[in-house]
Design brief:
The complex is a heterodimer of chains A (299) and B (238).
Chain A (H helix, E strand, L loop, with lengths): L1 H14 L12 E2 L12 E3 L8 E3 L19 H34 L1 H7 L24 E10 L6 E9 L14 E8 L5 H8 L5 H21 L11 E5 L6 E11 L2 E6 L4 E5 L14 H6 L3
Parallel strand pairs in A: 2-4, 3-4, 6-10
Antiparallel strand pairs in A: 1-6, 4-5, 5-6, 7-8, 8-9, 9-10
Helix pairs in contact in A: 1-2
Chain B lengths: L1 E2 L2 E2 H16 L21 E6 L6 E5 L4 H10 L1 H10 L3 H17 L3 E3 L26 H5 L3 E17 L2 E2 L4 E12 L4 E12 L12 H23 L4
Parallel strand pairs in B: 3-5, 3-6, 4-6
Antiparallel strand pairs in B: 1-2, 6-7, 6-8, 8-9
Helix pairs in contact in B: 4-6
């Protein structure tokens, strides 16, 4: 009986995995910070040339209860086959639920998606330049994959940026592990009704400015991390609340940088989360990004 | 077989109908606290906090047989160990303190009271919807308060739904319980609110030994609960 339970557990642990997502990654850091001093920092968007914007979908993929009557006389193998079929049914229901939720969320923000369809990522860069080639002499290019998000009310945008430094030595092996891999999240502040109108207006450049600010702030954070400027803080993890329209989002972690009314927090997954500190809410454009600090540094 | 002229089958059907009738009673709906109910300075409020019976752990639902439950427990045992070892009762205490502070905004005349016996041991009260199912009225004299506020935390940690052997989804950060306020003169609810927060982890959950996503979703469930309770006590729409 105990072998049966053990086998069943192994089977179910394999079947009941979390569906794969392209806006999620695990943190890996095997780099030599000296190689990524600021002068040698190069990045590329690779094949992701265009802006991708999505609605924020409910990630709860829990399927509703699916009752199935197991046939007792099917024997040991038959029992596993029936449980396997049941697991596949549940997995399929979970995938469908996620896909439907994402499709519905995208529909709600379709005016914003339509406005970003022809915008290239390189056109959003004002302070950084994308490398022409993915690797330059004496330095490694960081491959970036940004995905922008909007809430259903279209009054708050956010960004998830996945950064990967591939390991050229192990690239050909089956279990290639990158030298560096992380995710940076940037949350813009909640916009007022007037600001939202400006954002949606085709006559202004407001949307591109907001996307540009978030993208460059995220690149700045990657640059700081790769160059070893974000030392691991000794303080214990705390709960930070990111203002959202509706429920606040919880970020659990430690502050690694605070500037211009923004905080950069290294969360429990070692992701970096950049958000505006609520009490210091400022609507002035010059305070928008962390570059108020970068710009003041001598070149 | 006949018992005093009534067939056994008819007796069984009648009994079953009675049992199912009791099981299918209408649940108590939410009672919103109105802003001026507690404004009278002469009213004295007592506050009781009933903490969760278990440490933070994974709460399994839907594993409908003994073997299914054993399999489900085995699947979540590493997570249980993490939650029990790292999540203490401090967040529950923060919720407790928040409710007390929010009620203080309505009426400064509120104190923490200790019950001499558990609420479950109080006598039953046969009232309609809108009245507590236990008779709290005797506490008016013993505690010397007019209104009793009860925050009961039932579960915290993680929640995972199963269809017998099969998990329906990932474990979710979870906090559940109820907040109710009873007028000790009438035993009527001045407020009744249940909360059952479940927060999906942002990404993969099965990342031992620290389970960062699930841990974050637990803290998100805590914050959602705080926001819900705060809004409910302030009299805002939930």
């Amino acid at each position: 009986m105990r072998y049966f339970i053990a086998l069943l557990c192994i089977t179910l642990a394999g079947c009941g995995g979390t569906p794969k997502r392209d806006d999620y990654t695990k943190h890996v850091n095997r780099i030599d910070h000296e190689q990524f001093s600021q002068k040698k920092f190069h990045f590329s968007f690779g094949e992701n040339k265009m802006v991708e914007l999505r609605g924020i979908a409910d990630k709860d993929d829990t399927a509703s209860n699916s009752s199935i009557l197991y046939q007792g006389g099917a024997g040991f193998v038959g029992m596993f086959a029936q449980i396997g079929v049941h697991a596949l049914m549940v997995d399929s229901a979970r995938d469908d639920k996620l896909a439907e939720a994402q499709s519905a969320a995208n529909f709600l923000v379709s005016p914003l998606i339509a406005r970003t369809e022809n915008v290239t990522l390189s056109s959003l860069l004002t302070r950084f330049n994308e490398s022409d080639s993915t690797a330059e002499k004496g330095s490694k290019a960081v491959m970036l994959k940004p995905i922008f998000f909007s809430n259903a009310a279209m009054n708050q945008l956010s960004l998830k940026l996945i950064a990967v430094v591939p390991d050229e030595k192990s690239e050909k092996s089956r279990k290639a592990k990158p030298l560096y891999q992380n995710l940076i999240q940037v949350y813009d502040r909640v916009l007022t009704d007037d600001e939202k109108t400006q954002l949606l207006s085709a006559e202004t450049d407001e949307l591109n400015q907001v996307l540009s600010g978030m993208l460059e702030s995220a690149i700045y954070v990657i640059q700081q991390d790769l160059s070893g400027r974000y030392a691991k803080p000794k303080a214990s993890a705390k709960t930070f609340l990111v203002p959202r329209s509706g429920k606040s989002k919880v970020v659990r972690g430690k502050v690694v940088e605070e500037a211009c009314g923004y905080k950069v927090v290294r969360d429990l997954r070692s992701w970096y989360v950049l958000f505006k500190t609520p009490p210091e809410e400022s609507k002035t454009k010059q305070n928008y990004s962390l570059f108020c600090q970068v710009a003041s540094e001598p070149a | 077989m006949k018992i005093k002229g009534i067939s056994f089958k008819a007796t069984l059907v009648a009994l079953l109908a009675l049992v199912l009738g009791a099981c299918g009673s209408t649940p108590q709906p939410t009672v919103n606290l109105t802003s001026n109910t507690l404004a009278d300075e002469n009213i004295k409020l007592g506050y009781v906090y009933v903490g969760p019976k278990e440490k933070a752990t994974t709460h399994i639902f839907g594993a409908g047989c003994l073997l299914c439950y054993g399999v489900a427990s085995a699947l979540t045992s590493t997570l249980d160990g993490h939650l029990e070892g790292t999540v203490d009762g401090s967040e529950m205490n923060n919720i407790r303190d928040l409710v007390f502070a929010e009620y203080q905004k309505h009426n400064q005349n509120i104190d923490v009271v200790t019950l001499s016996k558990p609420i479950a041991k109080l006598p039953k009260f046969k009232g309609e919807l809108g009245f507590a199912k236990k008779d709290f009225r005797s506490l008016k004299e013993t505690l010397g308060v007019d209104v009793l506020v009860v925050l009961q935390m039932d579960r915290h940690g993680a929640y995972r739904s199963f269809s017998n052997y099969i998990p329906n989804g990932d474990p979710q950060g979870h906090v559940s319980g109820m907040l109710y306020t009873v007028d000790l003169n009438t035993n009527a609810y001045l407020q009744y609110l249940t909360f059952d927060e479940k927060v999906q982890p942002d990404g993969e959950w099965d990342e031992p030994p620290t389970f960062p996503n699930l841990t974050t979703s637990y803290y998100q469930a805590v914050e959602n609960t705080k926001a819900k309770l705060k809004a409910a006590i302030a009299g805002a729409a939930i």
